[in-house]
Request: fold
Amino acid sequence: MSDSHGEDILLPSTLSGKRICVVGYGSQGRAQALNLRDSGVDVVVGLRAGSAGVAEARADDVATQPIGEAVAGADVIALLAPDSAHEEIVRDVVNPRAKRGAALVFAHGYSITFGGVAPREDLQRLLVAPKAIGPELRRLYVEGSGAAALIAAEPGDIELARAYAVALGCGRAVILASSFREETETDLFGEQAVLCGGMPALVLASFETLVEAGYSPEAAWFECLFEVRLIAEMMIQHGVAGMVERISDTAKFGAMEAGEALVGEPTKAKLRELLQEIQSGRFAERYERERSGGSVRTRAWLQTLREARIQAAHEALAKTMGLPAAAAAAAEPSSGESATSGES
Ligand code: NAP
Reply:
């Protein structure tokens, strides 16, 4: 992957004269519609009847239309409804109504790679996947910086995908050429192995280990959860080696021994297995069964997390310390809050 860096033209000529329809006004839909509009793009938000997004978009001074009309009038259609709705929207609205040769933009490759979405043959399939949740994409744009994005055109005009990413502000960070498959599989793997699977599970197990050994939940919470932010920020700024260079000598020595003991060959074999499950489509099949059955296991798992001792410790300490969860929500009142791409 390689590509452009540090551009600050927000309306490339590739987009001039083109109308963009953003379908959905949730986390990504709101952020992308506002960024596109502020970059000078002709943008309209397409929503179904009765959508709460209509009032929200109006309050933001963004034009709205019924979804069918918005799609029919657009040169570029950004599908920013949840991935699980893409198949239906493409089948019932986009395929019957989109202009010949229009471009369909996806913010995540899942529904094309695994979700059974079948756009009309003449439609371009563009990927513009910002590496940020919607409120962050908007916040960075407003600040004068931007979020990184992965782009692809399969098939389609890659320069149009790049121009769309530039108008989102992503050219101020980095725009990387990728593919639908690469973006989807690395995203799923990252969220399972590290971000939402591995790391929180290690936080929980480590917290329980300390509390079961008689340490206070408060002390365990600081050591196993709160300080994750400090280490994550150091890794982002300086890399893994740079983080290790900056920690104490005891932390360095302990990290070396414990890291090798915890993530040895059995864990690496498990990581390869997770990746194979994703690549083969078996993960997507299991997910689809769970989703269509009402996400029973997922909801039960979430309930056990809510009831875990670490959550009680978190709520008490977060309140005492005035942690920024409430402040972040207040900054973008009408936006959703999903972690990585997709429905995670
Ligand atoms: P979201 O917030 O859940 O989207 C909600 C919006 O979609 C609402 O305006 C909703 O309208 C509309 N919608 C839902 N079902 C619809 C349907 N059947 N027909 C028409 N409109 C419908 O979605 P999101 O989290 O932003 O995700 C959008 C896309 O961005 C996904 O492909 C996702 O993978 C990707 N992505 C998301 C994030 C993120 O920050 N969440 C990050 C990277 C990539 P109603 O009011 O009518 O329900």
Remarks:
- The radius of gyration is 22 Å.
- The beta strands are 19-23, 42-47, 64-66, 76-79, 103-106, 124-130, 149-153, 175-177.
- The pocket of NAP is lined by residues 23-29, 47-48, 51-53, 67, 80-83, 85, 88-89, 107-108, 130, 133-134, 336, 338, 341-342 (CB under 6 Å).
- The mean pLDDT is 92.
